[in-house]
Amino acid sequence: MANEDPTSAGMIDFTFTHHGTPHTFNFPLESTIADLSNRIYNELSIPATNQKFMITPKLGILKPPFADPLPLSTLESKKIALLAPTPAQLASLAPPRPSSRPSTPIDKPVAAYRHRDWQKVQDEATYTFQTILPLNYLPGPERSQKFLERLRDDPGVKASMRKHKFSVGVLTEMNPAEHTTHESRTLGLNRNRGEVIELRLRTDAYDGYRDYKVIRNTLCHELAHNVFGDHDRNFWDLCKSIEKEVREADWKHGGQAISNEVFYDPEEREGSGGHVDGGGWSGGEFVLGGNGGKQGAPFQMLNRREAMARAAEERMRRQREAGSGGSGASS
What we know:
alpha+beta; 6-stranded mixed sheet
């Protein structure tokens, strides 16, 4: 974001964030985003080849070299986040220096050592989620941060992203109230084929978090939208393949199948039965209930208070049915 400094004629203060930390640089009014890139290299030691700028709203992600560099003065109303590894992270990818110690005599046995796969280390730093972004205005953002980091560091997710060479700019959570209508609930969004992936982590009542393995399957679905926007046979074949890869490579849990439901947690069911994946211009969104993802449908959005009230009413209904011997789902 750029702001003119009244005490410095012809200069602007330009602010961006990097891993949540704001940085402000002073530039002449005629400076462009290419000048910002050069300044970041000089000040923060981040090469242009590792820089990506997420500009919101609307512009999306830009990265050097810029075919037509935007003037910084045109970005004064935008929010700019630098998506790039820190110098420390870049340094960790460098191969180890040769040892200066004298070589071991030929007649002395050499103990075996484990060889580190530096190509795998570099691939994992490249094919990953470059930025983790919880919603700080919701309660307990530090819990969402840990949840998103767990997804990023999941052995199965990491293995599948390396295999398909998936690099996602931002992995973030969605606010349930902003993605809940009277007819549907969105569980995941993929914007512009991997620029941003949003996942519904929290319950509708904001009193907890949804099942990890169900959310992980939703993430597999959204990763498939990095390649295919429409839900044709190619998409579903890739989606099932990613789910299988994630299960089999998840050595922490023995590679066992996680659920018979692919994207749906029955404990969270509200209203309509089946599930619908909306797709669309953004590269794909996964929705429960609703109108089958048709464009232009007349949805009425629920605010946070309405969403919490509906969730509380649903829990009370299930408790009453359970107490009277009804057939409702258990809470």
